[in-house]
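User:
Note these tokens:
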Amino acid sequence: MLEMEESQKTTFSSSTRRQNNAFNYQDHSGDVDDGYGCCGIALLVLSMFIILITFPVAICLCVKVVQEYERAVIFRLGRLSKGGAKGPGIFFVIPCTDEYRKVDLRTLSFDVPPQEILSKDSVTIAVDAVVYYRVQDATASIANVENADGATRLLAQTTLRNMLGTKNLSEVLTDREEISAGMQVTLDEATDPWGIKVERVEIKDVRLPVQLQRAMAAEAEAARDARAKVIAAEGEMNASRKLKEAADVMSESPNSMQLRYLQTLTSISAEKNSTIIFPLPIDMLSNLMKK
């Protein structure tokens, strides 16, 4: 319940930040559209006049198309255009004053290069991971950061080092899901102002030094041998107890020993052996010794 409440709080706070960013962009773009100045308005009027004069040809330069998975962020006279990102479909630009940049909204993935990390118990390990992310706010990914992809990659590397630097080797080997979830939350919160949504983080491999691998293998082998010896000793102890119980039962009836001899002969003859050994009862020897 506590984890669900924390996740709900995190989701609510991130959505609130995104809404605030969207409102700020809308308000800012509205102020910008009204504040081009005399020179800006003159350039806009001149551009529209040129488009009207060369209408059949200029329409090819004014009409742009973006795919379903793309958005176009338009800068008019160097400022964000009103209405946010355009698309999908057809949108219009003014060739002389507008500049647009396409943003891909599909989920992307990249491999975090192997990082040499010193764990909390002073063990050097090499860890690599894979990160899945996508752009959820095209305007923020263009206006707030120079290179959203590069910044996300570098942040993933540093986050991986920081997260694993506070863990012991046993925790790194056993709690991969918990570490991946913590990295995903940390990256998502850090990249939220950039318009990036980190969907998933997975630790691919943890490579240990060769000497440490040999030491761990020797320790595991010794533990297995110790368990095997304990199990064998317990089996012998249980078998001896059962044999003692069987001997007590057979001592009460001398004929039972003869039946056991016959069963042994039957099992020997079933294997088609050429030599059959008849056991000599010890009672006969004891009688002869007495005589």
